[in-house]
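Lab manual, section 2.4: Encoding a predicted structure.

Procedure: take the sequence of the chain (205 residues), apply the prediction step described in section 2.3, and record the output as structure tokens. A sample record is shown.
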Amino acid sequence: MSAFLSAWLPVFPLQAAAGGLPREPAVVSERNGPLDFVVAANRSAQAAGIQEAMAVPQALGRCPRLVLLERDRAAEEQLAARLLEEAGRISPRVQSVSADLALLDFTGLDRLHGSAAAAARRLEKAFAGGGWSLRTGIEPEFFLLKKVDGQWRPFDDADRLDKPSYDLKSLPRQMAFLLDLRAALEAAGMKVQQTDHEDAHGQYE
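Recorded output:
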């Protein structure tokens, strides 16, 4: 069974500029024309009503004690490289989705690292030691099959499209099983973000 691990650095421009994720209301700004605009804001700033693309004077009007940081693209490049470096310690198969997001192929690596959850905790700890906040998620993929005349076939007989991941009716047909699976995973302490049909017949993630 294929297994993937995602590693994400939230509020990436702010973490890069501040060397971590500040607790006090803080934003990163960048000049566009005559004004500076908010590029990223942490939760404390968002709670004060500050949003991305807001002009800095307006942001200060909503939160006078706001910490302002200029965008540091060199620091962003360094942090993005650090993300790939640490991810490479877990898996030799790493894809950079964006500067703040890496996807690790964890297939077959459980004997080396233990579970994907254990590897995720190790990756989070590596960043926490430097003051950064990293979030991880697991993307396990599986096939839902049945045995017919000694051969394995997709459980869903109607799963026949050339691109089954675009079949909007496939998930409702298997909804009962998928809801039971979700309930079992959440009972085990896992938070399920979403369930999708993958590209192969009978394949889900």
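Check your result against the sample. The radius of gyration is 21 Å.
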